[in-house]
Amino acid sequence: MPPVTQTLLIANVAVFLLQSASDGLLEEWFALWPPGHGFAIWQLVTYGFLHAGIGHIFFNMLGLYMFGSDIERLFGSRYFLFYYLACLVAAALSQLVFTAISGGPPVPTLGASGGLYGLLLAFGMLKIDTGTTKKIPESSNRTRTTLRKPASSSRP
Question: Taking the model in full, what pTM does it have?
Answer without folding.
Answer: 0.80
